[in-house]
Design a protein that fits this description.
Chain lengths: 282, 282
């Protein structure tokens, strides 16, 4: 599927992948920024806890977003594909100013929602300005191409990653989460080695990429966002390696961004942004 | 210390860092190439097992190199700094066509050999054409700046790495070993963030960088060599981050090389080398 067309005169909503384990109590800056983006006390947030197998995941986020001042929060779960056709749930999503996917298993989301009216509606609403965030598995599914699962390791290896179609809000990037914590550079680079058109985004825990309508990514949170840009790739051996063999990749460009830094997914320019004092920038 | 000056009309010996756990039995291609480089049946190899606390490390490599056809192999251990002044051991090193440092703890090598006649002699002999290899800890110590220890993790973090002076055969690179297996991209990038002049070389296990007199690195073995070139760095926040905070690094260039690929440490050009068929290259 392709991202929905953005109507003339409108702006796409923000897309906000979060690397998992975001701070929910002491300094929940990522979740707070999401609530503010969705309208603060006017925010109307739908939480989709379908990735999770824990019964209280949805209600937990309802409580957190409520405490952060969101005007209205509703958790909507989907247990079967038939659930995705239910009019009352679709209507509730249609009203929302923000949609939030919890963590869990990304294949739960895509197997239940893929190709359904819910998936289509969320793409359409995002194109109309509704903000869509997801944490961990909920982050992985936001893009067109999703890492379904893979192996740990710092250097790329054939067969170390399995891609699957995601929700498809955008096709500009491939997400990996828990990045620093679970050693995923190798599998993200392997994912890019198949076809270097997309930008790889590795999200540390408690770290989010707030991607605006102009496709500029801003980092929020306590960790780093590792951007792998393969557009300048000189060589990939992905077409000739066997399973378990290392992949040769020449000419990757890597940026490690922290809070305040930005990356433009369109021009592929990184900026230290607020990290640089006016004196240095001048 | 600086690398020894190469006498007019002579060539530096090869420098061969190995990522640890190199194959010693089934297909010992790295160790075999080292023996051949040192002269095959004319090879005269000194093994320095000082990094290891295991009693049989030296004799094990004596046996392996012997079976691979080396003419003469002697293991020389150093238990105290005073041992490094002993004339018979220095004379034995002076005769060798190759020196091999085993794995273990790199700080054992540097605390025992640093600043001694042995360290100086090995630098001088390398400048005169003697080949010097090391595996794991033995690889880490070959360069001027050495990673003494650090934390695992895919993205760089202040305080995640401690540098120390190494043996100093070259100052062109900083080595990290067990690269894929122990998730060390973050700490290698952190090491470069202090001062991007050096090239970061991340060696997977059973993988070696054969660095010739012309400073071209050739990959040998079953894994990958990840080259991090920070020469084009646009920004490093290393001067302003606190311990435990992520480091912002914009503009790293990364190449993942496998057997057959090369990297020129002087021009900083990567090449797929033998991986590309003549047809593709044309």
């Amino acid at each position: 599927m392709c991202p929905s067309k953005i109507p003339d005169g409108e702006q796409r909503g923000w897309i906000i992948p979060i690397g998992g384990a975001e701070d929910k109590e002491n300094d929940p800056r990522i979740l707070r920024r999401f609530v503010e983006l969705c309208g603060g006390d006017q925010a109307d947030i739908v939480v989709i806890p379908t990735a999770s197998r824990l019964a209280d995941t949805g209600s937990r986020y309802e409580k957190i977003f409520g405490e952060l001042g969101a005007g209205k929060v509703t958790s909507i779960d989907f247990d079967t594909r038939r659930d995705t056709e239910e009019k009352s749930r679709l209507k509730r999503i249609e009203q929302a100013s923000g949609v939030f996917f919890t963590g869990g298993n990304q294949l739960r989301i895509t197997t239940l929602l893929g190709g359904t009216p819910v998936a289509k509606l969320i793409r359409v609403r995002n194109a109309h300005g509704v903000h869509v965030a997801g944490t961990s598995a909920g982050a992985a599914i936001l893009s067109e191409h999703m890492i379904a699962f893979g192996e740990e390791g710092g250097s790329p290896m054939a067969g170390s990653v399995r891609l699957a179609p995601g929700l498809g809000l955008t096709n500009r990037f491939i997400i990996d989460q828990h990045f620093r914590q679970r050693d995923r550079l190798g599998r993200l680079a392997t994912a890019l080695a198949f076809n270097p058109f997309a930008v790889g985004i590795g999200l540390d825990e408690d770290t989010a990429a707030f991607i605006g309508p102009d496709n500029t990514l801003e980092v929020e949170g306590s960790g780093a966002v590792t951007v792998i840009d393969a557009a300048g790739l000189q060589f990939s051996s992905m077409d000739r390696v066997d399973e378990g063999e290392p992949v040769c990749l020449l000419g990757l460009s890597v940026h490690v961004l922290v809070h305040g830094a930005t990356f433009n997914l369109h021009t592929r320019q990184a900026s230290a942004g607020a990290l640089v004092s006016p004196k240095e920038a001048g």
